[in-house]
Amino acid sequence: MVNYIIRRLLMVPLLLFGVTVLIFLMLQFLSPVERSALYVRDIPKNERVLEGVIRKYGLDKPMYVQYWNWLVGIKDQSTGKIEGGILRGDFGYSRTASQPVVDMIKHRFPATIELALLAVVPVLFGGVFLGVLGAVNHNKFIDHFVRIFAIVGWSFPDFVFGLLLLMIFYATLGWFPPGRVSDWANQVIQSGQFHSYTHMITLDALLNLRFDIFWDALRHLILPVITLAYLWWALTLRVTRSSMLETLRQDYITTARSKGLAEKVVIMRHALPNGLMPVVTLAGGTIVGLLSGVVIVETVYNYPGVGSAAANAAVSLDVITVLAFVLLNGFILVMMNLLVDILYAYIDPRVRLD
Amino acid sequence: MTGKETTPQSEIIGGRTISKLEAWLGTDTYRMLKGLVTNPISVIGLLLLAMFVFIAAAAPILAPVAPGADPYHIPRDGYGSVPKPPGADWTHRQPPMPFWWKAVTGHDQWIHLMGTASGQWDIYYGVIWGTRTALFVGLSITLVGAVVGIAIGAISAYYGGWVDMVLMRITDVFMAFPFMLAAMTLSAVLTPVLGKGIFPPIVALMAFGWMGFARLLRSDILSIREREYVLAAKVIGVRDSRIMFKHILPNAIFPSLVLGSMRIGSYVITFASLSFLGIGAEVGFADWGQLLSFARAWMTQLTEYWYIVIYPGTILVLFVLSWNLVGDALRDVLDPRMQGSR
Fold it and tell me: Is the Cβ pair B320, A319 closer than 8 Å?
């Protein structure tokens, strides 16, 4: 077990190195002028000054030098201050957000986390529940229903689904508006009486005992959460169903049944733990998938999170911002995979004895 | 691998009589095709696919454009910003009326069959010609992804050792990015290089679409390499390259092809998503995602302008669904563990 984890941990720096190299290579498609946004706020118009900036930050140096500078930053000779350097958390200046990339992410991340957290729970529980239901009733009506639900869900692009929901529940029924909160609620939040502890509005509203704001924020969240969750829900249920089907065919399940255990016990105690193994792998992917799915969902619903900012940046070819966002997601994905693998070794002895 | 030999008569293999057709196609292919045409789910998928191929092929008849005009540039009826409902008459710069229109409806006036989006782009033309875009996008990305992935997977499995190690770590790095985000980023990076249009996202999707194939083929080759018939070929001194191309690859490649059919849908979704965001296809290009992006301006009035969402949305969903239905059925047919449990 310890051996396995150590071997797995050793992979992480290698992967992260690869991830940064790939992002850095993409940066090389930009001209040195555009790349100077990694270090300076405003790209100077004057050519002489511009050349000075390029020379100062080594943007005309060999690639490995530039890569190193990009990682650790460059020391300004006159002031002694270090500028840039992604390892220091400086990803450059975002043209579309008109602020440093890091500030943009800090500012908008709570909204995205709020959205993704609310989506994770229905995905995992709903998907597993329906998947087990389908497997237990294999080839009966309910199974066909669950299967069709999954395959249709898998075929629905999230933005089409989002537009449909908006059409029905906002434009026609007027129940759930887009955006994050209503104007009146926003005024309260900006005012001095409302304390933003987490910047997740639903949670903050509860902590401030403002149930009207809580309800308002929730009303805005319902459609994006459903849209974000639907696709992964379909996937989770599909994986659970097929994995449960396979488990239920094993000999030990037949043994459990033949010794007279109640069907409920057979399924919940004997089949489910094994049947859920692949779902653990999927769960890691789901969290990453939700975090990247926000790009589309936040755009459809005008929801002010990091996803819509990244989409906006990509459309305006603000590459510095997009690359920072994708780098962040790459890091999260690598860490998530590590977590899943370790968790897997913990729950499945076959892996760690290998 | 039985049944590969072709004989004119039916023969007995594994204690049962097989037909000429089965002998000709080979047992595995025959079983797969039989599974596909007897499974109602895949039949629906295949019928839908046939419909899309028909629409793509018949596009010049279904939605003719003026001679010399670029058919992928949707014709527009003036420049007004308010969408027109389905059935509205063409008023400006009407494209040629299809010959069947009068015969079918008896009208002399060519109309906006599915209405127009803001900017008076005709939705019907976008839907019809967009079918070609979708087929081209889905097939080209899958083809390149599969070829690159299969090449890398085969090289990796064939040479093993440090080549395998390096190639697989590179694969891991490419997989460390969420697909949609990686494609979005690379499209943004490539747009100044390749120019605005559908090619930056296509190239970006190709660049991040090969890893699944590489991994799958590599593991399949590794398992087939240990089979007895390969060992037998080695023992009698067959050259390595011949073993690889004649004995291993043909038997290992099939799951990758199935993966390809299952991937097309998700590639088309990702491409359409990028168009929807405004990356790739230019405004007015015949692409479903691009058409749907017009709906973003009318969020509060979608009840009135439903046709901007419903027509392109339905056809996109059906297109993806058709590939997924076929892919799902193929997987069931090919997975030996699922046999007899249907």
Answer: no
> What element of type H or E holds A75?
strand A74-75
Q: How far apart are the first and last CA of chain A?
A: 10
Q: Where are the domains of chain A?
A: 2-93, 99-347
Q: What pTM, to 2 d.p., does this model score?
A: 0.86
Q: Which of residues 293-332 of B touch A (CB under 8 A)?
A: 295-296, 299-304, 306, 309, 313, 316-317, 320-321, 324-325, 328
Contact: A160, B184; criterion CB under 8 Å? no
Mean residue pLDDT of chain B comes to 83
Backbone angles phi, psi at B285, to 5 degrees: -80, 140
Instruction: Count the neighbouring beta carbons within 10 Å of the beta carbon of residue B151.
Output: 14
Out of A155, A171, A325, closest to residue B320 by CB:
A155
Q: What is the rounded distance in angstroms from the CA atom of residue B187 to the CA atom of residue B185? A: 5
Q: Report chain A's mean pLDDT, rounded to a whole number.
A: 83
- Over range B11-32, report the average pLDDT: 70
Residues of chain A numbered 105-144 and touching chain B (CB < 8 Å)? 139
pLDDT at B201 over 50: yes
Integer Cα distance of B293 and B278 in angstroms: 8
On whether any CB of chain A is under 8 Å from the CB of B70, the answer is: no
Spatial separation of the C-alpha atoms in residues A252 and A275, rounded to whole Å: 13
Q: Is the pLDDT of residue A242 over 60?
A: yes
| Other beta carbons less than 10 A from residue B58's beta carbon | 12
Nearest CB neighbour to A330, from listed B176, B316, B341: B176
Q: Which residues of A touch B337 (CB under 8 A)?
A: 246
Contacts of B192 in chain A (CB under 8 A): 29, 317
Of A152, A291, A315, the CB nearest to B279: A315
Residue in A with minimal Cα distance to B342 = A139
Mean pLDDT of the B139-151 span:
93
Question: Mean pLDDT, to the nearest integer, of A110-120?
Answer: 88
Predicted local distance difference test score (pLDDT) of residue B337: 47
DSSP E strand stretches across A147-234: none
| Percent of chain B clearing pLDDT 70 (strictly above) | 92
- pLDDT of A237 > 90? The answer is no
Compute the C-alpha angle A253/A257/A263, nearest 5°: 100
C-alpha torsion B325→B326→B327→B333, nearest 10? 110
| pLDDT at residue B276 greater than cutoff 50 | yes
pLDDT of A121 over the 80 cut: yes
Element (H, E) at A100: strand A99-100
Please state the ipTM of this predicted complex: 0.84
Q: Which of A151, A245, A292 sits opposite B178 (nearest CB)?
A: A292
Confidence of residue B315 (pLDDT cuts 50, 70, 90): very high
Q: Are residues B173 and A21, on separate chains, in Cβ contact within 8 Å? A: yes
Number of H helices, E strands in chain A: 17, 4
Report the distance separating Cα A240 and Cα A129, nearest Å. 9
What DSSP string runs through B98-122?
PHHHHHHH--SS-B-TT-B-TT-BB
Q: Is the pLDDT of residue B342 over 60?
A: no
Q: Which CATH architecture describes the domain A99-347?
A: Orthogonal Bundle (1.10)
Residues in chain A: 354
For residue B14, the model assigns a pLDDT of 61
Q: In degrees, to the nearest 5, what angle opens at C-alpha B58 toward C-alphas B52 and B60?
A: 130
